[in-house]
Amino acid sequence: MESIGKQEKKYIKSLALKKYRDRERLFTVEGEKSVEEFLASSFNVHKVYYTGEYDFSNRHPDTKKITLMDMQQISNLKTASAVLAIVEIPSAEIKAFPCNELILALDDIQDPGNLGTIIRLADWFGINHIVCSLFTADAYGPKTVQATMGSLTRINIIYTDLYPFLKSASGENHIYGTFLEGENIYETELSENGIIVMGNEGKGISREIAGLISRKLLIPAFARNAAESLNVAMATAITCSEFRRRNY
After folding, report:
1. Coil, strand or helix at 202
2. In whole angstroms, what is the distance from residue 75 CA to residue 173 CA?
3. Count of CA atoms in the C-beta half-sphere (13 A) of 84
4. What share of the chain is helix, strand, coil (3-state, %, to 5)?
5. CB atoms inside a 10 Å sphere around CB 164
6. CATH number, position 224
7. CA-to-CA distance for 94 and 67, rounded, in angstroms?
8. Residue 121 contacts residue 155 (beta carbons within 8 Å)
9. Which of 33, 58, 88 is the last residue of a domain?
10. 133 and 219: one domain?
11. How distant is the alpha carbon of residue 26 from its chain centre?
12. pTM
């Protein structure tokens, strides 16, 4: 059992803040399943801390067995898990996105939990690429990483100015978006490939981005006194499911 000094604890905890993650190009992953996913992926895991409840001593060359108290002090969870890993943030380079796939584009999604759920949904529905606006929540923040449950390891995530990206892609792709004034998604022709834009939790898709949408979709309410709108992660699940169901 090894102890962690104050400076080391402070450093690990600092990675909960975006400015330090950006500076160090590192983030933390917690939980046995999630850490296992990252160890088995192409991500570069720098170090693993574990309490002994779940032995990682033979899983990575740089591991440290620590006390439960130390784990609680470096954890970002209300109840600390048995393992925490420090992982390198991959390079965020714009790649040539394929025109023969379905892609998600996120227009200023603010809630880390929503973003994490959307990443997990993309993994479930076989969507390999997510393009995020510059003001979308950080995919490598603790709440987002936790919500992905390891799916972050299988999704290519890029942050960029969304308008020029969509404008350049519009010539070769159908661009879809969800709107209250859109066409019923269950009655509209959906292509096998294209870009699905999901908007901000409160404002929806911005006016600038809306001008690039080629097909506006509506998820209809079936109850007479239904809620005003759907949570963006729920709407993403319904939309992706309908695209996949139609082209299964």
Report:
1. coil
2. 43
3. 26
4. 35, 25, 45
5. 9
6. 3.40.1280.10
7. 41
8. no
9. 88
10. yes
11. 16
12. 0.93
